[in-house]
Write a structure and sequence with these properties.
The complex is a heterodimer of chains A (90) and B (552). Chain A has a four-stranded antiparallel beta sheet with strand order 2-3-1-4, sandwiched between helices. With 90 residues, chain A is of the alpha+beta class. Chain A contains three helices and four strands, in the order E-H-E-E-H-E-H. Chain A is globular, with a radius of gyration of 13 Å. Helix content of chain A is 32%, strand content 41%. By secondary structure, chain B is an alpha/beta fold. In chain B, helix 3 crosses helix 18, helix 11 runs parallel beside helix 14 (317-324) and helix 16 (357-367) packs parallel to helix 23 (507-516). In chain B, 53% of the residues are buried. The chains are: A alpha+beta (90), B alpha/beta (552). The A-B interface holds A 15, 18-19, 22, 26, 56, 58-59, 62-63, 65-68 and B 115-116, 119-120, 123-125, 127, 144, 299-301, 303-305. Chain A: GO terms for molecular function: acetolactate synthase activity. Chain A: It comes from Rheinheimera soli. Chain A: Keywords: Transferase.
């Protein structure tokens, strides 16, 4: 099991959060946390998704990157993950 | 002009000649704008039938299919067809009317959240909330439907947007889409050529992505310059001509024995525009177990999704295939595959008088002109068509592959006949599938379309029954269709002549009668309910563990 944090910049479309969550659920990933705020000029949204999964995260990021409304996506393995993984190993 | 008129003007500007649909309250302004337009609308008898006709039109022509429906039930009736187009990567634009924005969210009459419903079944979907966005949105919809991996795009247009005034200046010439020249992946190509040169047992596993990329010629050139055996998915049938000696047919659950054994034995699997679908691989962990994999696709999400590739490339097969051509060194392997193909060839010496569907379909295939289009439904007959009919191009074989949608064949044939009016179009259906969109006989009658309909009737939901027989202890739960209607009389009610046959010696004269009749025709073919499709890879088994008729 690993945790990742996805930082996503999207177009300012009302349905975009549903799209992100629908793809994430359908592809078998769990959302552990989510933050969203509009960009300073309201041209888009900044979304941070914390994802938990035992699958390679690329299986999700490759699908999210195909979404028309996604303009930028960055993925890092989270420190929380490391801590959780450590405690699980312990 | 009004937004509704802009929709039709833009379709005209984009060169859309044929659209399929069904009117209703929330899309009436667009249907009003359509009245006496240059765009020819084909009124189908159900929105699902309309959308499948648009899919048949798109798949047989390579153009974008366009369909329309009203809000609420009109839009929900499109959902299955949109899912079908998504799973088979078909370029489709669906335009739906929506209730006015003033009442949206109030559970108004015929209101449903179409945008929400569309998320899982489209490549993308738009709702137009301002008439000034309409032109750009529709242009984007067409571009998205065709670009990259093609797919369905839905545009939901509230009634107030359809009725709002907007300025529209039609462009005299449609701007050509600009494509950025992509650099070829030199290192990956070097690796691919090395893998091919060093392989002792290479094989090409060809999917629908090859013809979607318009790379059929490049694929055939590649196979000529880098001789190796090839197998195709259901959707790619016709990509390799039957005259290619080393073409082994379809692989997978009902694939040929030669194709499945060769893939299981290969040491290099070159996957071209295919996606390791479970109906192809059987038990994934045991699929082509000794093979290194080269995987090329336009969709990055398909690479490494189910099978890790030693060499993966994203890109245009028209450019990558010529760059990958290199001499092969696999003469013994070619001989071995040829021997397997001969050893496991189909047999048509079925005893008795009754009709043997594989032989009947082979005879049908031989009677068809080279450019004929065959549209299937889903079930046993679909697999028999794939096994026993030959196709000269993938656009001549339309079959619901990914979603496996019963009811696909008849409306898809309508779309294909309109896209290719000079070509013979045949739908081969089962008695179960045919009844799922039987109302489209009304569309055939209305537009006098010369579609030939062959119903392979075993009075059962045959494929489900076959699984019940093999894997559910012969408990035939809800698969008996022995109370089917009289199909010839049913066709006659739509002024379509027909004939029913049940003996082998009736097949050739019946085919002759059907093809010499100038209009639509229904041929009802009775077969025995005990006939099954062989070979079959049982669920969860590896592809070399096929069940055959002899083993039963």
């Amino acid at each position: 099991m690993s945790n990742h944090v996805l930082t996503i910049q999207t177009k300012n479309q009302p349905v975009v959060l549903e799209r992100l969550l629908q793809v994430t659920r359908y592809r078998g990933f769990e959302v552990a946390g989510m933050e969203m705020k509009p960009m300073a000029d309201f041209s888009g949204l900044l979304v941070t998704l914390s994802i938990v999964s035992d699958k390679p995260i690329s299986l999700l990021t490759n699908q999210l990157n195909k979404l028309y409304d996604i303009e930028y996506l960055d993925c890092v393995e989270s420190e929380l993950t490391q801590a959780k993984a450590g405690s699980m190993r312990a | 002009m009004k937004g509704a008129e802009l929709v039709i003007k833009l379709l005209e500007q984009k060169g859309v000649e044929h659209i399929f649909g069904y009117p209703g309250g929330a899309i009436m302004p667009i249907y009003d704008a359509l009245y006496q337009s240059k765009v020819k609308h084909y009124l189908c008898r159900h929105e699902q039938g309309g959308a499948f006709s648009a899919i048949g039109y798109a798949r047989s022509s390579g153009k974008v299919g366009v369909c329309m429906a009203t809000s609420g039930p009109g839009a929900t009736n499109l959902i299955t067809s949109l899912a079908d187009a998504l799973l088979d990567s078909v370029p489709l634009v669906a335009i739906t009317g929506q209730v006015s924005q003033a009442v949206m969210g109030t559970d108004a009459f015929q209101e449903v959240d179409v945008l929400g419903l569309s998320l899982a079944v489209t490549k993308h979907s738009f709702m137009v909330t301002d008439v000034t966005e309409l032109e750009h949105t529709l242009n984007e919809a067409f571009t998205l439907a065709m670009s990259g991996r093609p797919g369905p795009v839905l545009v939901d247009i509230p009634k107030d947007v359809q009725l709002a005034e907007v300025q529209f200046k039609p462009r005299l010439v449609e701007e050509a889409a600009t494509t950025q020249q992509q650099l070829l992946p030199a290192a990956a190509l070097d690796q691919a050529r090395l893998l091919i040169q060093n392989a002792k047992r290479p094989i090409a596993y060809i999917g629908g992505g090859v013809h979607m990329a318009d790379a059929v010629t490049q694929l055939q050139d590649f196979l000529a310059q880098s001789p190796m055996p090839s197998v195709t998915t259901l959707k790619a049938m016709g990509t390799v001509p039957p005259s290619n000696a080393y073409y082994l047919g379809m692989l997978g659950m009902h694939g040929t024995q030669a194709a499945n054994h060769a893939v299981q034995q290969c040491d290099l699997l070159i996957c071209l525009g295919a996606r390791f679908d479970d109906r192809v691989t059987g038990k994934l962990a045991a699929f082509a177990p000794d093979a290194k994999v080269i995987h090329i696709d336009i969709d990055p999400a398909e690479l490494h999704k189910l099978r890790r590739a030693e060499c993966a490339m994203i890109g245009d097969l028209r450019e990558l295939l010529p760059a990958m051509s290199v001499p092969t060194h696999c003469e013994d392997w070619l001989k071995h595959c040829l021997a397997m193909k001969q050893q496991h060839g189909w047999r048509y010496d079925h005893p008795g008088e009754r009709i043997f569907a594989p032989l009947m379909l082979k005879q049908l295939s031989e009677r068809l002109p080279d450019n004929a289009v065959v549209c299937c439904d889903v079930g046993q007959h679909q697999m028999w068509v794939a096994q026993h009919m030959s196709f000269s191009h993938p656009r001549n074989h339309l079959s619901s592959g990914g979603l496996g949608t019963m009811g696909f064949g008849l409306p898809a044939a309508i779309g294909a006949q309109l896209a290719r009016p000079k070509d013979t179009v045949v739908t081969v259906s089962g008695d179960g599938s045919f009844m799922m969109n039987v109302q489209e006989l009304g569309t055939i009658k209305r537009f006098r379309l010369p579609v030939k309909i062959v119903i392979v009737d075993n009075q059962r939901l045959g494929m489900v029954k076959q699984w019940q027989e093999l894997f559910f202890n012969e408990r035939y739960s809800e698969t008996d269709l022995s109370d089917n209607p009289d199909f010839v009389s049913l066709a006659a009610a739509f002024a379509i002549p027909g004939h029913s046959i049940s003996r082998k010696d009736e097949v050739l004269p019946a085919l002759e009668a059907m093809f010499t009749w100038p209009g639509p025709y229904l041929l009802h073919v009775r077969i025995d309910e005990t006939d099954n499709v062989w070979p079959l890879v049982p669920p969860g088994a590896a592809n070399q563990d096929m069940l055959t008729e002899k083993a039963q």
